UniProtKB/TrEMBL annotation:
This is 5-hydroxyisourate hydrolase. Substrate binds at residues 11, 51, 115. Keywords: Hydrolase, Peroxisome, Purine metabolism. The gene is LOC103751052. Signal peptide: none annotated. Its main location: other. CDD domains: TLP_HIUase.
């Protein structure tokens, strides 16, 4: 799926190296009303540019609470680096399924920042 057609994308930058975070495993989940359980929708990896386009197709997008879980411990261990956060979870709400959502993550072994991108 082309990035411009995907309603939900992410981009991870390794701020320690100043490069895209290649090969970072992430999982997308949605909070289900019955039982308040997280339902995993997709497992994926960032590409060579640190991007993960196509997390949801337009038909899969619906209003609700979503979570992107990034396996940062494995990412840093592969690079021989200790880290403080074993994983990063970004929880966000989608109110209108017709909008596009971009969730960037700026990552270092000791900190992270996220925001709603465009």
């Amino acid at each position: 799926m082309a990035m411009e057609n995907s309603p939900l994308t992410t981009h991870v930058l390794d701020t320690a190296s100043g490069l895209p975070a290649r090969g970072l495993c992430l999982r997308l989940s949605r909070l289900e009303n019955l039982g308040q359980q997280w339902m995993e929708l997709k497992t994926s990896y960032t590409n060579l540019d640190g991007r993960c386009p196509g997390l949801l197709t337009p038909g899969q997008m619906k209003p609700g609470t979503y979570k992107l879980s990034f396996n940062t411990e494995h990412y840093w261990k592969e690079r021989g680096q200790e880290s403080f956060y074993p994983y990063v979870e970004v929880v966000f709400t989608i109110a209108k399924e017709t909008q596009k959502f971009h969730v960037p993550l700026l990552l270092s072994p000791w900190s992270y920042t996220t925001y709603r991108g465009s």
